[in-house]
Specification:
Elements (H helix, E strand, L loop, with lengths): L2 H17 L6 H7 L3 E6 L6 E9 L5 E7 L3 E7 L1 H16 L3 E8 L2 E8 L2 E3 L2 H8 L2 E4 L50 E8 L5 E7 L17 E6 L2 E7 H4 L11 E5 L9 E8 L14 E7 L2
Antiparallel strand pairs: 1-2, 2-3, 3-4, 4-8, 5-6, 6-7, 9-10, 10-13, 11-12, 11-14, 14-15
């Protein structure tokens, strides 16, 4: 097999780590298969590269293209289930505080190991290469890409499974007024936990204090963290800058929700504890509501 093809495979699998901070809308656009294009600086060449979601092809798959060093292009065609899996993986990369990738090329195969916050994770892009969902288009006509029709003016929406009705949100509490002579402080509280259609927990945080959460809590190098425990053991977590992308909690009365990555198996129950500000980095008026512990069951 052409060594350049193996290198292209390694580059595609590693690409979300490099583009996460510059192509912030890519995961959501891929999830919906909506046309989108963004540029990012490739760490190996220092030159701008483009990646794009073209839209649905004639078979109803989502067509994407990404530039690679050496004038190569990677073209992928994802069905609905697979594109959502890739989009979820990219969101995990964006939410991780630390990410790394290691590529090994030999014996006609490419093996890439991805680690997020020190843990090895399954990379769906590697499976996409192995299944032939993604192809490297070489320069000078080495490999001819499949013909594709131009994107429609208005991309058709693919069918999505029905979503369970969300429970009504509780009325927002008015932020308490600061007492004279005392500094107003934020109050980060775990408000509620729900499930999406795939039994993944949706955690909602509220700022019930008289001041906003400070910008320092969103620092990528030392961000505050939200951690979930299941049956007393660490389950999954996310940094605050990934949890609250719109910085809603930087205002008193603000509210933010985030869909976690790992589902609770349907029909099972577990004792779950949610902890906001895991390392007590935020000075607050009330620390008691940073933790919520309850029995969860996805029906």
């Amino acid at each position: 097999m052409d060594t350049r093809y193996l290198i292209a495979a390694a580059l595609l699998i590693s690409q979300p780590l490099w583009a996460a901070s510059e192509c912030t809308e890519y995961a959501d656009r891929l999830d919906a298969c909506e046309p989108y294009e963004c540029s990012f600086t490739h760490p190996f060449t220092g030159t701008p590269m483009k990646k794009s979601v073209i839209g649905p092809d004639d078979d109803g798959n989502c067509l994407t293209r990404e530039q690679m060093p050496g004038n190569m292009t990677m073209e992928c065609r994802f069905d609905e289930a697979y594109r959502k899996e890739v989009a979820d993986y990219i969101r995990q990369v964006e939410a991780a505080e630390k990410s790394s990738t290691e590529a090994r090329i030999g014996g006609g195969k490419t093996k890439v190991t991805t680690r997020l916050d020190g843990k090895a994770v399954a990379n769906p892009l590697q499976a996409a290469m192995e299944k032939g969902l993604c192809k490297a288009i070489m320069p000078q006509g080495r490999e001819k890409p499949r013909a594709s029709s131009p994107p429609p003016a208005k991309p058709k929406r693919l069918h999505k499974p029905p979503q369970p009705p969300a429970p009504p949100a509780p009325p927002k509490r008015a932020a308490p007024k600061a007492k004279p002579g005392k500094q107003a402080l934020p109050d980060l509280a775990v408000a509620r936990v729900e499930f999406d259609a795939r039994c993944r927990p949706i955690v909602t945080l509220e700022n019930r204090g008289g001041a906003g959460v400070p910008a320092s809590a969103y620092d990528r190098s030392n961000s505050a963290g939200i951690q979930l425990y299941k049956e007393g053991k660490g389950w999954q977590g996310v940094a605050l800058f990934g949890f609250d992308r719109t910085r809603a909690l930087m205002k008193p009365g603000g509210q933010a929700s985030f869909t976690m990555f790992q589902p609770l198996p349907e029909g099972t129950s577990a004792r779950v504890k949610i902890v906001a500000d895991l390392r007590n980095q935020i000075r607050e008026s009330n620390k008691r509501n940073n933790t919520l512990e309850l029995e969860l069951r996805c029906r």
